[in-house]
Amino acid sequence: MERLLDGYARGALDPYSHALVEAHLILSPENRDYVRNIEATIGEELEAVPSTRPQRAARDQVLAAIYAGGWYGRPRPPKIDPDLPEPLARLVGAPLSDLKWRFAAPGAREHRVFEGGGISASFIQVKPSRRLPQHTHCGIEATLVIKGAFSDHLGRYRRGDVAVADPSVDHSPIADPDGPCVCFVVAEGPPRLTGPLGRLLQRVFGG
């Protein structure tokens, strides 16, 4: 998670990871102080740069807009879905209920926002109490919970939480029983099935 927060504060993330972290900061106070500290360090570094270089906007002003749910320097869009933080709403321009969902796994649907350059960004909706197939990852995968909650062997994640997985994580997340779980996921490469289903596919297709 620190890698994402550092990249966000320094403006080094791809647009979809940036939107994920920004939405996390809106929904949860957990890492706001950490980001402020990084911003303060960057500010000190910028003060040492000759004034001929362009200066970035005031940190406090930018962060205040983020934490208030604003989008600094741009007009606010109409509120389109109470469950969608503004950075994610801007990616799709429609309520979650109007997205074009497709089958992803038994009990799970996906709306793909972007795929290219080695990353993908998607909304994932999982039915209550439904467990996803066991899998690991080709690279880093960041998952922001937008609605509901899910659990795996590493913990339980609720609205505003971010779960970060890498190739060392082999898990089978399960949605809470009291309602569907909706997440926004940015991943480096596709997931790789590792449970019984994955082994079956490997035998069938010789993977």
Automatic annotation (TrEMBL):
Domain ChrR-like cupin intervals: 97-186
SUPFAM superfamilies recorded: RmlC-like cupins
Top-level division of the source organism's lineage: Bacteria
Pfam families, A to Z: Cupin_7 (PF12973)
Protein's name according to its UniProt entry: Cupin domain-containing protein
Source species: Chelatococcus sambhunathii
